[in-house]
Amino acid sequence: MFDSTTQSEHVVRTEAGPTSDEPSPGRVVVVGGAVMDATFRIKQLPAPETSTEAFAFNLCPGGKGLMQAVASARLGLHTSLVAAVAADRFGDAIIEYLENEQVDTSLIKRVPDAETPVTGVFQQQLGDSIAVNWRNEKQIRLESSDVYERRAELADCDVLLVTFEVPRDTLEVAVALVHDAPGSRPTVIATPGQPYEDDEVAADTLAQIDYIVAHAWELEPFAPPDAFDPESVAGALLAFGVDTLCLLMNGGCTAYSRPNVLRVPAPPAISKESSVARDAFCAALAAQLVDNERKFSEETARWATAAMSCAASDFPRRNPLPTRRRINEMLEAGSSFRRISAAAQA
Length: 346
Fold this sequence. Notes:
Number of strands: 14
Helix content: 25-40%
Strand order of the largest sheet: 4-1-9-10-11-12-13-14
CATH architecture: 3-Layer(aba) Sandwich
Mean pLDDT: 87
Radius of gyration: 20 Å
CATH topology: UDP-N-acetylmuramoyl-L-alanine:D-glutamate ligase
CATH superfamily: Ribokinase
Number of helices: 10
Shape: globular
Structural class: alpha/beta
C-alpha cells in the first residue's frame, strides 16, 4: 500500500465514506475494467513535438466498470464488481477504494505477479478529455470461464452493467448467462467503450442486450462501410433486437426505441462532459429501471441525463459521481431555469 504522507506518491485519498441516500432494494452486477487513472488537467493539448504544463494531477482508481460500480453504489444500489485486478500495490488501492465506496469486491479476480493497467487521461478545464489506455491484456484478463464461475451471482441481480473493456467472448458469455437465467432475468445495459477492433459483437448477443449507452463514434463498427449516420445505425441495432439505444451527445441523450425517438437536452452545466459522465448515466438508468419495474420513460431518460450533467458539473472534485439528492437538485434547477426563461420570453 502507499504511504499517503509521501509526496512522491501522487495517490489521491478517497472521500470519507460513501454519500448514497437510502438504499434501493435493487441489486446490480457490473462486468468491466478496473485500472489506475493518471489524470493530467491542462488548459489545452500541446502541439506536436512540444509540451505543456499541467495545473493538476491525480492518480486514482478508474475504468468504466469500476466507475459504474461506484456510481451505482452511490445511488443506494447493492453493487458488485466482476473484474480482473492485479495483486500489486495499485490493485490493493483499487480494492480499498471500492470497499470504501461500499462496492462488493468478493467477485473480483486477483491476478498474482501482474501489473495493474493504467489509463492516461488529459482533461481540459471544461471537462473535454482524451485518454490513452495500457490494458496489459497479456497479464490482466477477465476470461469467459471467470464469468461462468460467477453465473449464480449474475443471474440473481436486477441489472447487469457490462462494458466492452472485457474480451468480446467474456461479454458474450456474461450476457448469455443472464439471458438464459430462469425466472425474471436481469436487465442488460452495455457500454461499447472501447469498441472491439478485432471483430463485431455477435448478432445473438446484440439481441440479448436491452440498452446500449454509447457515444456516436463508438457506433461506427455497426455502420455501413460507406457512411455513418446515427439514425441508420440505431435502426440497425434495434433490428438486431436491442431494446433501446441511448446516444449521448453534447451532454444530452437521444433514446431510440420502438417506435419512438426521445430527445432529452442537457440540464444547465458549466462543463461539457467528463470521463465519468457516461458512467453516472448508466448507473442512474439502472436505478430508475429498478425503481420503476423496468419501465423506460421520458422521466427515466431525464433523470439519467441529469446524473450525467451532475458528473460533468462536479468533475473537478475527487469523485464527482452524484447521489440521488444531487440529481434531484439538478432537475429542480433545470425546471426553475426553464420557468424563468419562459417568463422572460412572455
